[in-house]
Amino acid sequence: MLDVAVARARILEKLSHCGPETVSLASACGRVLAQPLTARLSNPPVSVSSMDGYAARTEDAKQGATLTVIGEAPAGHPTPLTLKAGQCIRLFTGSQIPAGADTVLIQENIERTGTLATLQAAGRKGQFIRTQGQDFTAGQPLLPAGKVLSARDIGLAAAAGHVWLPVARKPRIGVLATGDELILPGDPAKPDSIVNSGALMVTAYLNSVGAEATMLPIARDNMASLSGAIAYAAHLDLLITIGGASVGTYDLVRDALKPHGLALDFWKIAMRPGKPLMSGHLGTTPMIGLPGNPVAAMVCSLVFVAPAVQTLMGLPVPTELCTEPAILGADVKENDKRQDFLRCTLSPQPNGLLPLATPFASQDSAQLNILAQSDALLLRAPFAPAQNTGAPCQIIRLP
Ligand SMILES: Nc1nc2c(c(=O)[nH]1)N[C@H]1C(S)=C(S)[C@@H](COP(=O)(O)OP(=O)(O)OC[C@H]3O[C@@H](n4cnc5c(N)ncnc54)[C@H](O)[C@@H]3O)O[C@H]1N2
Ligand code: MOO
């Protein structure tokens, strides 16, 4: 059985980038920028006032001086007038600074009588003026390729004159559940029917990490049904199967995919839950076969499929799993040869102490209720010795 880190590396090293697409600004939030973004405009495009008040010349802006108001320049309506000695122009926040002016006097410090403005305070050169390009100038690099775009980045791109953005295409993923016992939520149920929770959970999760994942029709446990379902795999960037991965007579995924060009890279890894994980290619389409037990399918999605989505979008994925330190909240037994991912709760501790990670007593990989109540996965390395409450440990927080 393959080591978890080796299996992860082998899956990721065979994936390539899906390439870019162009989307409108508002829909680019959360997407991965595919090319560096450069400003097309300067911000502000001209020097503007940052306050409501009067534009003046610094040499005239003495306390007690009285200036003649020669015009008004609201934002969006620049004046053609040029200030001369002893003059000022009424303006507002965002107004373009008129020619000849080099200071702004806020209106609270002006006593206005008709066309005369008397200064209660002197003006400093440049005060309350946002100079042209103070934020950024046209041609300036703003965002690097590979950045996951935030709403703030969208605001920046809009201010910089962009309407469309090049982003990494969302990887198209088909999630194919297999099993005679499976039904969709709401389908008429036989006494032994099992709802296809696995595919719903995995599809929802992969979409939340940036994929365009869709559930394919359920394939039944026979070669004809499985072969038929494979037709839906065309045009996918990644095929995920769920179930039929183990050693039972009706675990047919490998055999059904072989005549369709399945090149299996590996099957079975030293992981609990997740032992029967398989990976390979169906023709040129990468495929990952998840175990049927839904907890195993979800944990494997977290450890292998989400990083695959990131890789397909061109995002770097650290070689090591991203873990955090915690403190054991219960005694744990020595581990066998499989790396364990124990479902656990996390209790915050006072005074900056690490959280307590307490594994659930039952770790059955069919128990969705326990998975839903868990805060994290507690990692136990292969052959880790027994450890007592209070020992340091590593966790992965659950999404
Ligand atoms: N003799 C052995 N038996 C099993 C082994 C083994 O090594 N030797 N491995 C066990 C492990 S570990 C796992 S995990 C499971 C995985 O088996 P499969 O991938 O073949 O999955 P199925 O047999 O199809 O289903 C297992 C279980 O999960 C339910 N299931 C399946 N698909 C879904 C779904 N989409 N949504 C919800 N539930 C699903 C299914 O009804 C079964 O109860 O094999 C062990 N056996
Ligand atoms: O992957 Mo299985 O869930 O270890 O039971």
TrEMBL record:
Q: Where does this protein act, in terms of pathway?
A: Cofactor biosynthesis; molybdopterin biosynthesis
The cross-references to NCBIfam families, in alphabetical order and at most eight, read: Glp_gephyrin (NF045515)
Entry EC no(s): 2.10.1.1
This chain's source organism reads: Acetobacter orientalis
According to UniProt, the reaction catalysed is: adenylyl-molybdopterin + molybdate = Mo-molybdopterin + AMP + H(+)
Q: Does the keyword Ion transport apply?
A: no
Write down the Pfam families for this protein, in alphabetical order.
MoCF_biosynth, MoeA_C, MoeA_N
User: Which UniProt keywords are present, listed alphabetically?
Assistant: Magnesium, Metal-binding, Molybdenum, Molybdenum cofactor biosynthesis, Transferase
Occurrences of domain MoaB/Mog (ranges): 174-311
Protein name (record): Molybdopterin molybdenumtransferase
Report which superkingdom the organism of origin falls in: Bacteria
**The protein's enzyme class:** transferase
> Transferase: is it a keyword of this entry?
yes
